[in-house]
């Protein structure tokens, strides 16, 4: 059950991440004027490759989340909703694993991003760059 909760949290984060990408470019110039937050506790050191995999998986999860949110709203009864949640969780786990990350690593990056605005910006830029490259 914990894996479902963590993955849904990650899905919500990824939806927020994808939704905030447009704002990231606008805010990038303003952020350059602000001093870096060196007083924050250092985040885990994730490689650029891991962060890119996270960005790619997040895009997939955002699509899955949007699809299954609609299905969840249409599901009637607790059993139907539980089945939709389980199916969504399975698809999200598959998306993470297909990206080359372990679910635990994906969730750890998601938590680190929530605590580190600079890391979040790096991942947003990676996601934006991969979106532009695939267009």
From TrEMBL:
<feature type="region of interest" description="Disordered">
    <location>
        <begin position="25"/>
        <end position="44"/>
    </location>
</feature>
<feature type="signal peptide">
    <location>
        <begin position="1"/>
        <end position="24"/>
    </location>
</feature>
<feature type="domain" description="DUF4168">
    <location>
        <begin position="47"/>
        <end position="123"/>
    </location>
</feature>
<dbReference type="InterPro" id="IPR025433">
    <property type="entry name" value="DUF4168"/>
</dbReference>
<keyword id="KW-0732">Signal</keyword>
<dbReference type="Pfam" id="PF13767">
    <property type="entry name" value="DUF4168"/>
</dbReference>
<protein>
    <recommendedName>
        <fullName>DUF4168 domain-containing protein</fullName>
    </recommendedName>
</protein>
